[in-house]
Amino acid sequence: MSHPLVTWAETSLPDMLADLEQVIRCESPSSDHVAVARSADLISGIGARRLGFAPERLVIDGVTHLRWQLGSPDPDAPRVLLLAHHDTVWPVGSIETHPFSIQDGVIRGPGSFDMLTGLVMAIHAAGTFADGPGGQLAESAITLLVTGDEEVGSNASRALIEQEARGCVAALVLEAAGDDAAGRPGALKIGRKGTSMYRINIAGRAAHAGTEPEKGINSLVELAHQVVAVQRLADASVGTTVVPTVARSGTTTNTVPGRAWFDVDVRALTIAEQHRVDEGIRELASHTGATLTVTGGINRPPLETAAAQATWERAQAVAESIGIELPEAIVVGGASDGNITAGVGVPTLDGLGAVGGGAHADHEHAMVADIPIRTALLVGLIRDLLGGEAP
Questions:
Q1: 284 phi and psi, to 5 degrees?
Q2: Torsion over CA of 363, 369, 372 and 378, rounded to 10 degrees?
Q3: pLDDT tens for residues 339-384?
Q4: Pairing of strands 141-147, 63-71
């Protein structure tokens, strides 16, 4: 016999799928602020129906975010942050080339895996605390924060996320699950590498490549030196990657290039490694007399496993109590807004959203069968964290 939370979630599945279809069809690429605002309109309406009231609408630097506050208004009350985002990487029109569908238990469509399924799960889970098996919130609280710029680095929402996270019992991030070391799907994420992003700008001196190249300072040659130097900052033994990605130099084929630049992607498991690489990049020295200027820096701190371990253990216990088997938790290279919450010292558990695959790819998909059990797990974990009855 299913646990009552699982039974509730299974009964709610048709409503969750109906909401998900609307959200996927309403495209929301991060860079299109009009589309993101339109998506926020839709999600506001869905959330108002499921939670019983409309969210606060927060527009920061043109990006629309939504915030629901449930339960006790006491700032000292135990609080859980549910963190989701409604922007995607898919440009408007992708719904025509990657149409929404549910076939053979598989949901397809832009953003279905990353992370619109998790967003809908969060809304329905939060709704149970207004009226349902989660029970009323009298002396505790939940914040459901839905941001609109996660896929492009959360620059507009970072301060908001930090503000809402501080003082919380835990932050639960509805990003999609991963596969564990044995290849089993549905693994929660207890670690994420921190990300840093740099641009190395090189100012040399242009000259005619045929008649007086010696009068120039070749920015492309300097770029080649710096790419090698930057790569040497990587340290595979501790999981630190330093990857030159995009580069540009020169104007014409008969001109010594006077200017060049290249971008660098850095991923590290610890803040100490992020700072080591940051220092190394800022200490790069010219080989040719060109001038080097570094822009960018640390974008998201790592979600270190110490920030997730206790909440992960509670999730395991909740899962067992409601009859759910969880794979081993994992550490991944990609960052999320969970990095930000962990960065302000809040216990953070990530990967609580969809089971599926193909994030940002043509085969993006989510599995229908996993939605009820993971939504039940989410409700049970919230109750546990807020000191409610055992699931």
A1: -55, 140
A2: -50
A3: 999 999 999 999 999 999 999 999 999 999 999 999 999 999 999 9
A4: antiparallel
DSSP state of 240: B
Pair of tokens at residue 23:
């959200």
- Beta-strand pair 189-192/330-332: parallel
**pLDDT band at 387; cut points 50, 70, 90:** confident
State the Cα–Cα distance between residues 120 and 209, nearest whole angstrom. Answer: 59
DSSP string, 267-300: EESSHHHHHHHHHHHHT---SSS-EEEEEEEEEE
Length of the chain: 391
**Collapsed DSSP state (helix, strand, coil) of residue 93:** coil
What pTM was computed for the model? 0.91
Pairing of β 291-300 and β 194-203: antiparallel
Convert the pLDDT of each residue in 257-274 to its tens digit: 999 999 999 999 999 999
- Residue 30 phi/psi, 5-degree rounding, is -55, -40
DSSP type of residue 56: E
Q: How many CB atoms lie within 10 A of CB 174?
A: 30
332 contacts 185 by C-beta, under 8 angstroms? no
pLDDT at 388: 66
Q: HSE-up of 380 (CA within 13 Å, CB side)?
A: 28
What sign for the dihedral angle of Cα 166, 170, 176, 177?
Answer: positive
Q: Which long-range contacts (CB under 8 A, 24 or more apart) does 124-128 make?
A: 124/9, 124/12, 124/15, 124/16, 124/19, 124/50, 124/375, 125/82, 125/375, 125/378, 125/379, 125/382, 126/50, 126/51, 126/68, 126/70, 126/82, 127/50, 127/51, 127/52, 128/8, 128/379
Q: pLDDT digits over 168-216, tens only?
A: 999 999 999 999 999 999 999 999 999 999 999 999 999 999 999 999 9
Write down all domains in the chain, each with its CATH number in brackets. Answer: 4-192+302-385 (3.40.630.10), 194-300 (3.30.70.360)
For residues 84 and 115, the answer to whether their CB atoms sit within 8 Å is yes
